Amino acid sequence: MKPWLFLLALAACSHSLLIPKGDDTYRRALEHYRHTRQLVSASFAPDDDQAMFMQAESLFRYRFTSRRSTGAVFAELAASATDLPMLEAVAGSLDLFALRLKTNDGAIQIWETMLDRNPASPLRALALYRLGWAYRNHIVTGFVGSSDVVFDALVKSYPGSELAALGAAAKQVPYKSPSTAGAWSIFPGAGQIYAGEVRNGTIRLAIAAAAATAIIVPAVIAYQRNSLDVSDDWPLLVSGIAGATVLAVDYTNSYQDALRAVLEVNERTERGFEDAHPGAP
After folding, report:
1. Eight-state DSSP code of residue 19
2. 10 Å Cβ neighbour count for 133?
3. Reduced to 3 states, what is the DSSP secondary structure of residue 188?
4. Which conformational region is residue 83 in: left (phi greater than 0), alpha (psi within -120 to 50 degrees), or beta?
5. What are phi and psi of 140, to 5 degrees?
6. Out of 19-28, 67-76, 147-156, 181-190, which region has the weakest mean confidence (pLDDT)?
7. Computed over its alpha carbons, how large is the radius of gyration of the chain?
8. H or E segment and range at residue 48
9. What mean pLDDT is predicted for residues 210-219?
10. What is the rounded (10 degree) CA torsion for 261, 262, 264, 266?
């Protein structure tokens, strides 16, 4: 098949990029965004602070039920198996999965910039509260803060305030770390188990073990024989190649999926906190 036909076939497998009307995750995010907009307007903060805060808020509230398209998943698997840059580009262009994972980093960047430019901003307390949650899902390295640090700063700077009480309570809520999930993903599936998706992770670990076996067995036989004859031992060669391909695909896909699992469990935790604290902004 010609490359352009292949790309068209992948695109045909994709679902609509629009958010469905019945998406409860997006509905809740929109309601919180509206409420936050009212709080920001009532703060009488400088116009620049209000604009920056709401720009970050829109990234932080960029939430909808994650549904990866068939075409994007297939392209990602093909890119992992072949290591072709073209397929990697295609995989990233067929849905918004990668953007969904990094919106917290964008929000952190803008809120931290706002606080750096105006440390005395009337929106500082609310920004610290938001940062406490956003830092739990950050992937990009280089930010100076962390969830516990900003929650502590909120409690110390605004003792007795409602936001400080919410921040102290939020700090006690357990969460999963994307960096820890990524580190565990050195064993495909371990990141999913860390995030609580035991069945998903176990299947991925089993696939990795089978692929590793398909590589190791031919290698051991070749070592014992000092060589392999292509005409007689081609099944062993095919086994090794297939095992290496499957293992590469499993590694790449498992890492991305582990980040997805952590994001979803943390957002469910935050949602539960909001339900238990109706006054939370």
Report:
1. P
2. 25
3. coil
4. left
5. -70, 135
6. 67-76
7. 23
8. helix 47-60
9. 88
10. 160
Q: Which of 200, 202, 208 is nearest to 248 (CA)?
A: 208
Predicted local distance difference test score (pLDDT) of residue 237: 77
Residue 231: the pLDDT is 67
Compute how many other C-beta atoms are within 10 angstroms of the C-beta atom of residue 18.
8
pLDDT above 90 for 241: no
The model's pLDDT over 73-111, given as tens digits with 9 standing for 90+, comes to 555 555 545 554 444 444 444 467 788 889 999 999 999
- Given 3-state DSSP classes, what are the helix, strand and coil percentages for the chain, each rounded to the nearest 5? 75, 0, 25
Looking at residue 239, its amino acid is S
Q: Which two tokens stand for residue 97?
A: 């999965």
Distance CA 61, CA 251 (A): 30
Distance, in Å, from the CA atom of 94 to the CA atom of 99, rounded to the nearest integer, reads 12
Rounded CA-CA distance 132/147 in Å is: 4
CA 197, CA 200: separation in Å to the nearest integer? 5
What is the average pLDDT across 8-24? Answer: 69
**Residue 42 C-alpha from the chain's centroid:** 33
